[in-house]
Amino acid sequence: MNRLPILSTLLWIGATAGGLAAGAALADDHKHAASATHHRLFIGDHADGVVHAVDLEDGASAGVFRLDQSPALARSTSGRTVFAVQGDAGKVAVIGTGLSFEDHGDHADIAIEDAKLLPTAITGTKPAHVVDGSGTIALFDDGTGDVALYRESDLLEGTVKARNLKPGAAHHGLAAPMGEFLVVSVPHDDPEKPRVGLKIIDAEGKPVGGVVHCPAVHGQAQSVGVFAFGCKDGLVFAHPAGGSKPPTLRHVSTAALGDGNVSTLKGGTAMQFFLGNYGPRAVVIIEPGDEPGVRKIDLPTRRVDFALDDAKANQAYILTEDGRLHRLNVVSGAIEASVQLTAPYSMDGHWRNPRPRLAVAGDHVVVTDPLKGLLRVVSTETLREERTIAVAGTPYSIVAVGGSGVRH
């Protein structure tokens, strides 16, 4: 007797019942879930070794973390960690932001926990640039020229297994991970002179190809898989080649734009573009296509800081020294709106003087006002200041993490 049809029927019934049970369980699970939006700010003090964590929605403190010196802050791509770089102290503190997202295709689950200073202690001679790329976090040590590579999951778990490479001599440099390769800066033979260019190294630290000209290379950002680097005479783009092939480097001149150069870059996430500085009174919108385009946007006075809006991909925000906040449309290149936000912060004097910094968190751009001890929370839609958050000390550098998801 042939029992295969019966077995097939039983299997189908079992699978259907299992599917219905799983569907019912999933539906029941979603009954107990709710949509949640949460953004958390991390603010470095200008004078002291302190990082304040603040929840944007209610302005409540989410933690105060004591360090050895005033830090430079950088966040990971995932937003799960913030790096507090203390170069002169030879340390990098790692803060777990307490926010994480798990992708489920049609939605993401959000987990909200306490922010905490992780036990991981990263030390070096003079650690400087932190760059996250291709799932790897690269820390460049200016004091040695070495690069330490980390996985974020190891940092969060406290099981740090750094991979160390020695691509060259000590200098004020950078390293950008791209798949199995890294793009690293190349020092001048004379240590008193600035960097000469960029090169690609493999996973063992061995050079792949030659040095690409990029005098005094400074500043880098990533946008949709492409890295851009600022040079005294232009830009260098690093394009991934895919598979086991090394990325390609391409230099583009900015001589046609007149005096100035790019030394700070921000990269778009939803659209492939970069926003960079260009001299003290301009920014440039950069498109790294087959025929790269660079548009210069003149500003009414000198620029203090700028930030991109990941949620509204066509918007950027620029604060100028007269205390005015401007919204720039990066598609049209037009400044669409401007408001008076802070008292003037002159760009004269030392570059390290306390001046405002910007971070975008959801529907708000948050601006530190160091001399007032405030965070100014501004609507990205109207550019109106909705409220302020007092922060002890001299709030200076700032990064934002967070977003929306389903909370179970």
UniProtKB/TrEMBL annotation:
Record bears the keyword Signal: yes
Signal sequence coordinates: 1-27
Record-given protein name: Metallochaperone AztD
Classification via InterPro entries: Quinoprotein_ADH-like_sf (IPR011047)
Keywords for the protein's UniProt record, in alphabetical order: Signal
